[in-house]
Specification:
Among the domains are: 66 residues, MutS, DNA mismatch repair protein, domain I (3-Layer(aba) Sandwich); 55 residues, DNA polymerase, domain 1 (Orthogonal Bundle), CATH 1.10.150.20; 136 residues, DNA polymerase, Y-family, little finger domain (Dna Ligase, domain 1), CATH 3.30.1490.100. Helices cover 39% and strands 19% of the residues. The strands form 4 sheets. It has a 5-stranded mixed β-sheet with strand order 5-6-1-7-8. A 4-stranded antiparallel β-sheet has the order 9-13-11-12, covered by helices on one side. The C terminus is likely disordered. Bound molecules: magnesium ion. The site of magnesium ion has 5 residues, from strand 1.
Length: 389
């Protein structure tokens, strides 16, 4: 095993998410046993329920028929997945303000790699509370958060004090936290392994630790090694942000062909602002910048430039596109320009210069996002009869 770098991982898990969204949208439901599942399809299952409903023994994945028996006075609500998706998107956008490395686990759950961000906060408690406060202020919903040195422990922590919990598991607390837990608290241990271990007299993580690694590997194969490590709170899995988008871009067909180089550059700047904002919203970096250009006779050309890394601010994207534009024959005029970014990968901050430039960009992005359009940007995008404003 190589040297394990010390990491700070947060696991954020929304409390009774679907039920909480329903209560958010219909505040009169607050305090009632809200059960997400349709009364009209008793063969369906409960997807979530409020903590009030849980007091009656209702839980997720339970058949609706059973929930009706346990809690006949429950408020049964058919799920509104589009709405939950919408709130989920707002949640993930918020989480990406805290770290570029966000790994969604489900619609309402994510890991954040906060390694290196700790010094922005007075303590890990402060870090966790800041995320919780942001969720409560901006989404008016509550979350439980676990913070630890790896994904397994962070997720364990978020589950320990639900709802509205904040649990930090420090290295020196790992033994104390893990020892009394049942073996199925370990990641990947299901009913089958639990039964197998129980037959061997192993019910708790503490008991599991007494067992030699070779014996575990002999008995459980690959899983044995994992059991050995997890029982000691060791988990080296990285936080992985999936990037579905492989490219992003914007293009604009002009109402009239444009010949003036300065006007062409202004159009490029406008496109760079659009593309740049989406790049940063998705927390991507990119390797290849492509300019697409169409002449009045519909001939279409592309010109690309690839670098190992590009700065992510609008101005750098614009400057890259402008340089490519000037490799073309401008005298013929253009009817369309476009900017495409490809070779996308998750953004990781590499140096302080990037951070300084990033701060201004962040403020500008936030203001534009708040107003839902470009209200701050370089003066020239508003110059003379700008057709788009
Ligand atoms: Mg949840």
């Amino acid at each position: 095993m190589g040297v394990i770098p010390l990491r700070t991982i947060a696991h954020v898990d929304m409390d009774a998410f679907y039920a909480a969204v329903e209560i958010l949208d219909s505040p009169s439901l607050a305090g009632q046993p809200v059960i997400i599942g349709s009364r009209d399809s008793p063969r369906g299952v409960v997807s979530t329920c409020s903590y009030e409903a849980r007091r009656y023994g209702v839980h997720s994945a339970m058949p609706v028929r059973r929930a009706l028996e346990l809690c006949p006075q429950g408020v049964f609500i058919p799920p509104r997945h589009d709405r939950y998706q919408e709130v989920s998107q707002a949640l993930f956008a918020l989480l990406r303000d805290f770290s570029p490395l966000v790994e969604p686990l489900s619609i309402d759950e994510a890991f954040l790699d906060m390694t290196g961000c700790e010094h922005f906060y007075s303590s890990l408690e402060d870090l966790g509370q800041t995320i919780k406060d942001a969720i409560s202020q901006r989404l008016r919903l509550s979350a439980s958060i676990g913070i630890a040195g790896n994904k397994f422990l962070a997720k364990l922590g978020s589950g320990l004090k639900k709802p509205d919990g904040l649990v930090i598991i420090r290295a020196e607390q790992v033994d104390e936290v893990l020892t009394p837990l049942p073996v199925d608290a370990l990641w990947g241990v299901g009913a089958k392994t639990t039964k197998q271990l129980a037959r061997l007299g192993i019910n708790t993580v503490g008991q599991l630790r007494q067992v030699q690694e070779e014996w575990l590997v002999r008995t459980f194969g690959k899983m044995g090694r994992q059991l050995f490590l997890l029982a000691r709170g060791i988990d080296e899995r990285p936080v992985e942000c999936q990037s579905e988008a492989k490219s992003l871009g914007a293009e604009s067909t002009f109402p009239r062909d444009i010949f003036d180089p300065r006007a062409l550059e202004t159009e490029l700047l406008r496109l760079a602002i659009q593309v740049g904002r989406r790049l940063r919203q998705g927390n991507f970096s990119f390797r290849t910048l492509t300019l697409k250009a169409r002449y009045p006779d519909f001939t279409t050309l592309t010109r690309s430039k690839t670098k190992s890394s590009w700065p992510r601010d609008d101005w750098s994207i614009f400057a890259g596109a402008r340089d490519l534009l000037h490799t073309l024959d401008l005298t013929k005029g253009f009817r369309l320009l476009g900017i495409y970014l490809t070779g996308l990968y998750p953004f990781q901050q590499l140096n302080l210069l990037e951070e300084d430039r990033g701060r201004l960009t962040k403020v500008v992005d936030k203001l534009n996002e708040k107003w839902g359009r470009t209200i701050i940007g370089p003066a020239r995008v508003w110059e003379k009869n700008n057709p788009n404003e």
